[in-house]
Amino acid sequence: MYYFIVNELGGSGQAKHTWERVKSVLDGRNVPYQFFVPQCKGYAAVLAEMISEKDEDDINLIVVGGDGTVNEVLNGIRSFERVKFGVIPTGSGNDFCRGLELPLKNPEKVISMILDSGETKQIDLGVVESGGRRRIFGISSGFGLNAIVGTGINGSKLKVLMNKLHLNSLSYALMTVKTLFSMKTNTYKISFDGGPLMEFKKAIFLAGMNFRCEGGGVPMAPKASARDGFLSFCIAFGIPKWRTFFAFPVLLAAKQEKLKGFFLKNARTADVFSDGKTISHTDGELFGNLNKVHFECLPGKLRVFC
């Protein structure tokens, strides 16, 4: 039995059509399945909890949706050891599927890969904690510019327009430029793996990455791997705002380690302290307005169809 959680509203209205294409494959091959459609934000996690607690040794749980739906489902799963997880991409960012190197525009091929191989591989997940709250992420979590853009763009008219024009990544770029010149920078003090505090003044953002890319394909951590037991951190700091116009193309080209003002490091944990409250996200979903956060890698936590 395959269980599908289908966000029919994802991809600016394209997700329902994608699900019809997936259903056609399932019905044509007489595959037994059940599907569930979240009726409101947050309900995908409730459905994931219900499915993951079924009395079955192997639970095939497939998300038809974007990165936000994937994040909700990951935070609803209660028995990771019994779940085989898959994703049919329908969103505008699709960084989780990009990290798994899945086809982004061919749902028939993805569902056929899942049905035909049945094989899984173990990948890491990340977790962020602050003030007694805890949230899992599959792609990334962060502070500052990337969090402001990632959480603000979800409900923006710009994103809807760019999706319709098939210019998804451009919406992130335009929102980034707009946000950069209005945001306030902070000083971060960070302890990696319990080591001494390192100070980063005039910090623009911190990204804790499980995969290479966030924001619709922006390679924040070019050497990140979801199978090495580490999170990859990228911090931009002390860069005059006028110079960010020159730094941004370098970031998009995944060459930021060569630029002054970027710091990259792999670590299992990181404790971040900010001198002012800063927007934080998990997989583009708002986590809070915080000044203290703990990041940690959960090695091999999730079995994914490959």
How large a portion of the residues is in β-strands, by DSSP E? Answer: 35-45%
Q: How much helical structure, as a percent, in the residues?
A: 25-40%
Number of helices: 9
- What's the Cα radius of gyration? 19 Å
Biggest beta sheet attributes: 13 strands, mixed
Cα shape: globular
- Terminal residue distance: 18 Å
Order of helices and strands: EHEHEHEHHEEEHHHEEEHEEE
Structural class: alpha+beta
User: Can you tell me the residue ranges where pLDDT is under 50 for at least 5 consecutive residues?
Assistant: none
Task: Find the count of extended strands (DSSP E, 2+ residues).
Answer: 13
Query: What is the averaged pLDDT score?
Result: 89
